[in-house]
Design a protein that fits this description.
The chain has 124 residues and is mostly helical. It contains three helices and no strands. Helix 1 packs antiparallel against helix 2. It is rod-shaped.
């Protein structure tokens, strides 16, 4: 009788450990998905910043080269350069705001593990 009670206790302990590990792995899998989405989003923001930066530099270069000729063309090039520089500034500011809002990777898993450890530790 004593050994069956001990075996049941060990089984319950093992079941609790396996259940806890299962829950943590499920949470980790969800966070991997979120990190993948976040990485793709970051690449899109960086790509937009790079693209608009290239356009700004290209039109700024064209404007400087073209400064020696006709007034109407010069005004058009300056206007296009201003639009692309404005777009670059907007994308950079929006990207900085986006990156500032990002949370620490795997934050939920780390918090759950901290709570688990706190429950397991013996009282001081």
């Amino acid at each position: 009788m004593l050994t069956s009670g001990l075996i049941n206790s060990v089984r319950e302990l093992a079941d609790g450990v396996v259940g806890s590990v299962h829950d943590r792995l499920a949470l980790l899998a969800i966070e991997f998905q979120e990190e993948k989405f976040r990485l793709i989003q970051n690449f899109l923001w960086l790509g937009a910043a790079f693209f608009t930066g290239l356009l700004a530099v290209g039109f700024l270069s064209l404007t400087i080269v073209y400064c020696c000729h006709g007034d109407a063309r010069l005004v058009a090039l300056i206007a296009m350069t201003a639009v692309y520089v404005g777009a670059l500034i907007w994308v950079v500011v929006a990207a900085k705001r986006h990156f500032a809002k990002e949370s620490r990777p795997f934050n939920a898993t780390l918090q759950e593990m901290t709570r688990d450890r706190a429950c397991i530790r013996p009282p001081s």
